[in-house]
Amino acid sequence: MFAHAFVRNAYLAGTFIALACGIVGWFVVLRAQLFAGDALTHVAFVGAIAAAVLGYTELVGLFVLTLAVAVGMGALGRHGQADDAAIGIVFAWILGLGVLLLAILATSASGGSGVTLAHTLFGSIYSLTPGGSRLAAGIAVAVALAVLVAVRPLLLATLDGELASARGIPIRALGIGFLAVLAVVTAESTQAVGALLLLGLLAAPAGAAQRLTASPYGGLALSALLAVLAMWGGLALSYQIASLPPSSAIIGLAGAAYGAATLYARAREG
Amino acid sequence: MSTRLSLDPISDLRELFAFPFMVNALEAGTIVAVLAAVVGWYMVLRRQTFAGHTLSVMAFPGAAGAALVGLPTGLGYYVACGGAALFMRRARGSARRSYGTETATIATVQVVGLAAGYLFLSLGNAVLGGTETLLFGTFLGVSRTQVLALLIVAAVAVTLVAVSARPLLLETIDPEAARARGLPVAILDTGFLLVLAAAVAATSQITGALLVFALLVAPAAAAQQLTMRPGIGLVLSVVFALLIVWLGLGIAYFSIYPVGFYVTSIAFALFLAARLVRSIRTRRRAR
């Protein structure tokens, strides 16, 4: 199957996106910010539609809108986090804007709103271009490195905010920065796995890792490993079974890993 | 909708009620507004917004699955939402609400549901236009039987909440105290999730899976910005929800753009206004 260029592109982009999602997702779960991540994935989807309406490339719309909303949510909330009612309302409104933009897109000359919708919602990893997959891989590596560089202060700020600020760590800036990183991951992964299914790569491997180990570095590594394995397995499965969409296969495997980890943790507790 | 606004309120109103589809939409919207406002008030107080969102997303696999096996769509909504609610409750076990691993469970349930829905769609070869309706709703395509079904679900759900209003409030604010008083904490918790699931399933048939929050969160959150007293807060929440639905439907009728946009925008504006009022109030009190 690696004889096909589209499979190689998918594996290149997918591996590094999964790696970045696994690492960032571990912190997202630890900071209980999955709802913010969820909101950002929906925002990303509206960003893609907005770009289509305004005639920019999709990537620009994705990055601009997700970054703006992430920084806004972080700045509005206390400690650089956002409370969930505010998140819910903001993202409902942005989705409302998305409906408006879809209506405009449907009546405009370019048309094709249904295709744009399905594409940004569920992704099309098998239609990535060689350049697109290299770009995605590059951004993912940069994101993973950014988190790993800040791993110690971020860990301390997450686990014990007061101790962190006593040591002079700028918690608020770190919180906003982390949301910005999350926005970059979201924007970039939306192209590959789709806005709605991206959340699975953030949540399931990280959740599984936290059920299995309490050690931070072991957990980070395990989370990244599980994400990459789910990506590889899902891509292979959907290549073999034609009617199985790649996003569904990847998320199915990640969800199964989370379920298995939960059952294992429960059995160990007795 | 390409009807012109004549700026004469009486003839405009008469025109609004002239078409059966508009009457159905207004009736369904009113029922859903009351239901969502009451259940949403507790949901926001219990910090279960993320769970609520996940339940609303379950409408998608529910509808896609029902279409695949040939069952009515509405039934698929309720089965998928109720099933997800029970699953989330079981998976959480005795862990605290809105805690890191709980959000991981909720998110995983959500994406697995979505992935399943996408799979059902691709298996059933359904058209994409259906997806858009599922996600963004059809305010203006509501039938008489749907209105009746909504009325029954809403009546049952609101009655359940009304009957257990006080114990549920105590369980929400202080689970330990509720347990000490001998309240059935686990039943209240599970029961509320199921009522939330029913409310979400009902609301998302009208607003679509993605716009449920305009009615479920915004009125309740706005009310809680203004008052923390339960009775007045609940009434205020219902009033806000009705305002959002009626204004949204009314404006959308005279405009070419979708109802969802107006409903969410009015909801957002209302929440911002409530926040503004609260910050002015606290500043005045501080003086």
CATH class assignment of chain A: Mainly Alpha
Rough shape of chain A?
Answer: globular
CATH H-level superfamily of chain A? ABC transporter involved in vitamin B12 uptake, BtuC
Q: Which ranges of chain A are low-confidence, i.e. pLDDT below 50, for 5 or more consecutive residues? A: none
Rg of chain B from C-alpha positions?
19 Å
What is the architecture of chain A at the second tier of CATH?
Orthogonal Bundle
Q: Tally the beta strands of chain A.
A: 0
Task: Report how far the terminal alpha carbons of chain A are from each other.
Answer: 44 Å
Number of helices of chain A: 12
According to CATH, what is the class of chain B? Mainly Alpha
Structural class of the helices, strands and pairings of chain A? mainly alpha
- Helix fraction of chain B, binned, reads over 70%
How would you describe this structure to a colleague?
The complex is a heterodimer of chains A (270) and B (287). Chain A has 270 residues and is mainly α. Chain A has one domain (5-263): Orthogonal Bundle (ABC transporter involved in vitamin B12 uptake, BtuC), CATH 1.10.3470. Chain A has helices at 5-30, 34-54, 58-76, 84-107, 113-122, 130-149, 151-159, 161-166, 171-193, 195-212, 216-240, 246-269. In chain A, helix 1 crosses helix 10, helix 2 (34-54) packs parallel to helix 4 (84-107) and helix 9 crosses helix 10 (195-212). Chain A is globular and about 55 Å long. The relative contact order of chain A is 0.18. Chain B has one domain: ABC transporter involved in vitamin B12 uptake, BtuC, CATH 1.10.3470. Chain B is 80% helix and 0% strand. In chain B, helix 5 runs antiparallel to helix 6 and helix 13 (218-226) packs across helix 14. Chain B has helices at residues 9-16, 20-45, 49-57, 59-69, 73-92, 100-124, 128-136, 144-163, 165-173, 175-180, 185-207, 213-216, 218-226, 230-253, 259-286. Chain B has 287 residues and is mainly alpha-helical. The mean pLDDT of chain B is 84. The chains are: A mainly alpha (270), B mainly alpha (287). At the A-B interface, helix 2, helix 4, helix 5, helix 10 and helix 12 of A face helix 3, helix 6, helix 7, helix 12 and helix 13 of B.
